[in-house]
Amino acid sequence: MLSKNSEKGCCPFRNLKTCEEKCSFYRKGVRFKELGGEAIPFEECAINIIADNLEAMHNRTYMMQKEVGETKNVIAMKILQDMGLQTKEEVIRTALKILPQDKSQKRLE
Length: 109
Description:
This protein has helices spanning 46-82, 88-98; strands spanning 26-32, 39-45. It is α+β, with helices and mostly antiparallel strands. The two termini are 43 Å apart. The model is unreliable at 1-6 (pLDDT under 50).
């Protein structure tokens, strides 16, 4: 994010001076948090907003790819078990290593 090295709302093109309404990059609006839907008002340079959005899209894509990969691995292990190439215990042990666990759950090992 461009504004990490300076105060929020500072313009990266004007020696990090405060963004002003007369600037064509100035934006005023509301952001919504993904979890919870909380509305957060902002006044900031459009370049900073674009960088924030790209970073959020990248993080969402990364997490989705990670989840798909983990699911694929568990499905593959289940198929191997169904074919008799792995025991149920091996599948459970592998799934527990791959999938994130809630610390309140008991381990099945």
